[in-house]
Amino acid sequence: MATDVHRPVTPQTAVRVEGLTRSFDGRAVIDDLRLGVRPGEFVALLGRSGCGKSTLLRILAGLDRDIQGTVLVPRRKAVAFQAPRLMPWKKVWRNVLLGLPGKPARAVAEQALDEVGLSHRPDAWPKTLSGGEAQRVSLARALVREPDLLLLDEPFGALDALTRIKAQRLVGELWQRRGCAVLLVTHDVEEAVLLADRVLVMDEGVIAYEQEIDLDRPRDIADPRFAQLRAGLLERLGVDTAAETA
Ligand SMILES: Nc1ncnc2c1ncn2[C@@H]1O[C@H](COP(=O)(O)OP(=O)(O)OP(=O)(O)O)[C@@H](O)[C@H]1O
């Protein structure tokens, strides 16, 4: 099979994946997967633990190239993980610029920190940050790359409920302001319906189901249609919601 990895995509698509297969020890975790994401589209990816979500995201990020198939993604892309992965010996603003080519000015970091509500902490050390603040630094680090595609791997997974709600809101705002495509891996069905234009469910190595979320924004979790979409996705994930709705 032809392997054609990481060529830039056309203006009409942010991501195009065809016939993607990734195996570990002879077992295909991703098996002839097909996926398209439009520019500026917010896509959430759900699926049971171990179904290959993070593997797919790492491939799209260019961190795993041991694959078969076609993967077309924009040159400008950035990734944020569940763990913020900050260098403890570098101040916040230096962490934001970490890995950027050239010698970017501190002002570049400061602008991104401002966007994530951390303009007052450029000189802080990572160990003095709360979990939510560290995650914001991680987001700022993604933003300075001016991505056309933002890849988020459970970025809110380790946050407490209130911080999580604030972080979700922030990501929604950043997405609307920046207009980049987002692929968000999450375990949280409600989060997916709250943020995404389209929710994908991964199973058996492929995208087994997809659901457009045609609700106006900002979304209201008390809206009966919200609950309906949420229940439909939970059912697809094999979660019985009968007790909830009875
Ligand atoms: N480097 C690796 N070597 C061997 N097996 C791996 C490797 N990376 C992932 N796997 C396996 O591939 C499968 C998919 O893993 P992956 O982390 O992509 O799942 P996931 O859907 O993101 O799970 P979770 O929701 O629990 O984070 C798992 O069975 C995992 O053990």
Automatic annotation (TrEMBL):
<keyword id="KW-1003">Cell membrane</keyword>
<dbReference type="InterPro" id="IPR027417">
    <property type="entry name" value="P-loop_NTPase"/>
</dbReference>
<dbReference type="InterPro" id="IPR050166">
    <property type="entry name" value="ABC_transporter_ATP-bind"/>
</dbReference>
<protein>
    <submittedName>
        <fullName>ABC transporter ATP-binding protein</fullName>
    </submittedName>
</protein>
<keyword id="KW-0547">Nucleotide-binding</keyword>
<dbReference type="InterPro" id="IPR017871">
    <property type="entry name" value="ABC_transporter-like_CS"/>
</dbReference>
<dbReference type="Pfam" id="PF00005">
    <property type="entry name" value="ABC_tran"/>
</dbReference>
<dbReference type="GO" id="GO:0016887">
    <property type="term" value="F:ATP hydrolysis activity"/>
</dbReference>
<keyword id="KW-0067">ATP-binding</keyword>
<keyword id="KW-0813">Transport</keyword>
<feature type="domain" description="ABC transporter">
    <location>
        <begin position="15"/>
        <end position="229"/>
    </location>
</feature>
<keyword id="KW-0472">Membrane</keyword>
<dbReference type="InterPro" id="IPR003439">
    <property type="entry name" value="ABC_transporter-like_ATP-bd"/>
</dbReference>
<dbReference type="GO" id="GO:0005524">
    <property type="term" value="F:ATP binding"/>
</dbReference>
<keyword id="KW-1278">Translocase</keyword>
<dbReference type="InterPro" id="IPR003593">
    <property type="entry name" value="AAA+_ATPase"/>
</dbReference>
